[in-house]
Design a protein that fits this description.
Helix 1 packs antiparallel against helix 2 (58-75). The chain has 76 residues and is mainly α. It has one domain. It has 2 helices and no strands. The longest helix has 18 residues, at 58-75. The mean pLDDT is 91. The radius of gyration is 11 Å and the shape is globular. The chain has helices at residues 18-32, 58-75. The protein binds zinc ion (2 copies). The site of one zinc ion (ZN) has 6 residues, from loops. The site of one zinc ion has 6 residues, from loops.
């Protein structure tokens, strides 16, 4: 279950329509798997384990991204 707001736009996940959801998920997946490239922007907090994405190893980031996508799909 997701209890954190969207890591990208900080709105509640339930307040997303399909189009916005796709956009946020896509951006999150891209940035979470390559946090160093996006680190100059605001911190990306993992919605799954609530740690900074920068503190994830690649394998952990992959796991969290996949888990988040599953959790989001369950919401709708
Ligand atoms: Zn969002
Ligand atoms: Zn995580």
């Amino acid at each position: 279950m997701i209890k954190t707001p969207c890591p990208i736009c900080h709105k509640d996940m339930k307040d997303h329509d399909k189009e916005k959801l796709d956009k946020c998920l896509w951006r999150f997946a891209r940035e979470a798997r390559n946090p160093v490239a996006y680190a100059s922007r605001e911190k990306l907090i993992c919605p799954v384990c609530e740690e900074e994405m920068l503190d994830h190893k690649i394998s952990e980031a992959d796991k969290c991204v996949n888990q988040f996508i599953l959790d989001v799909e369950e919401l709708f």
